[in-house]
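Entry: Mannitol-1-phosphate 5-dehydrogenase
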Amino acid sequence: MKAVHFGAGNIGRGFIGLLLHQSGYEVQFVDVNETLIDEINKEKAYRVILANEQKEEFHVEGVSGINSAKAPEAVIEAISSADLVTTAVGPHILKFIAPLIADGLKKRTKENDMPVNIIACENMVGGSSELQKHVLEKLNDKETSWVQENVGFPNSAVDRIVPNQKNDRLLDVLVEPFHEWVIDSTEMKGAQPEIKEALFVENLQAYIERKLFTVNTGHAATAYLGNLAGHATIAESIKDEEIKKTVLGSLEETGKVLVATYGFNADEHQQYIQKIIGRFANPFIVDDVQRVGRAPLRKLGAKDRLVAPALAFMNEFNEVPENLVKVIVAALKFVSEEDQESLTLQEKVQAKGAAAAFSEIAGLDMDHPLVKKAAETF
Ligand SMILES: NC(=O)c1ccc[n+]([C@@H]2O[C@H](COP(=O)([O-])OP(=O)(O)OC[C@H]3O[C@@H](n4cnc5c(N)ncnc54)[C@H](O)[C@@H]3O)[C@@H](O)[C@H]2O)c1
Ligand SMILES: O=P(O)(O)OC[C@@H](O)[C@@H](O)[C@H](O)[C@H](O)CO
C-alpha cells in the first residue's frame, strides 16, 4: 500500500509517517523544503524517539520524498496511484497544495478508478472539507462528479505534541508519548483504510472541538501568557502558578461549553484537562512558547481555539469568559521575530489600537462585548 503525505515536518514525520509505516504503508513525503526531501531520499529511514525516561525508539523505513516545487509531475503521478493521501502542512497551506492534488485526481480518473481518501491532519475544524473545497474549485463538472463519488475527504483530529527539533540527525523526531488520531468514518470512500491506533468515529465534531478547545486552547494560553512573563518554554510557563491558574481558568470555561454542547462527563473532562496540563509540563520536551504561539492572526480567528469557545461561552452562559479574555489580550501582545504573523499583528495593534485590531482579526463588531472587554483588559 502506498501513502502520499504532504508536509514532512514535525507531525508529518513524528506521527502520521510513523503510524502509516507501522500500518504497512510505503510513505512518500511531499514537501517544498529541499534539504528535508534530499535527506529523506538519501537516508530512506528515520527514527522517532519518545520524550520519556526510557527514550524508546521507533524506526520508520522505506520512505521517499518528492520536492513538489521542483517535481510537480512526480506528485501528480503519486496521487494518481496512491491508496491514501494525508496532509500536515498548516491550515493556510491547504489552498496551495490543492491544485496539485486536483491534477493528481484528474490523472486518476483516466488511469485508476479506485476510490481514495484524503485526510487533512491540521489543527482546525473541518480541515479535509476545506481542502476538498479548494480541490473542487480546480475541476470541471465531469471531474467533480467523479471526485464526489470516489474521493473521500474525512475530517480528522490529530493530537501529539511534537516540538521543533534539535537532534543530531536531521530526520529524527523527538515526540511526546501521548498520541491520538481520530478520523470521521462517515466521509470515507471505499474500504476504510487500516491505520494502526487510529480511532474511526461518527461524531468527529465533538472530538475535534474537545481537542482544539482543550489541548490547543490550553497550549496557546500557556504560550501567550508565558511569553508575556518572559518564559522561553511551555514547561517553564506552566510551572508559573499565576499562569497555570489562568490556563486552568480558561479550560474551565471551554470545558463548561464542551460539556454543555456535547454532553461529555464533567469528571472525565476534568481528568482530560489534568492529563493535558501534565503533558505541557513534560520535562523531556523543550517546546518553545514561540512555536506554540506561532501564527497569532490564525489563532485569534473567529473559528479558532480562543475566540470560538469564548463566543460559545457567551452564547451559553450570557457572560464574558474572563480567563479567555486574559489569554486573548496576551495573544494580542505576542511578538516573535521569526513569526511574520506576529509582526503584522503588532503593526495592526500599533496603527489601529487593540480594540480595532482584534475586531478586524476576529470579525467582530467594535461594540461586541468580547471586543470591549478585551480592549478594557489590554
Ligand atoms: N507539531 C505538533 O505538535 C502538531 C500536533 C498536531 C497537529 N499539528 C498540525 O500539523 C500541521 C503541521 O504542523 P508541524 O508542527 O508539523 O509544522 P512543521 O512546520 O514542522 O511542518 C510543516 C511542513 O509543511 C511543509 N510545507 C509548507 N508548505 C508546503 C507545500 N506547499 N507543500 C508541501 N509541504 C509544505 C513545510 O516545509 C514543513 O516541512 C499544522 O496544521 C499543525 O497545527 C501539529
Ligand atoms: O500547530 P498550531 O500552530 O495550530 O498550534 C501549536 C500547538 O498548540 C500544537 O502544534 C500542539 O503541539 C498540537 O496540536 C498537540 O496535538
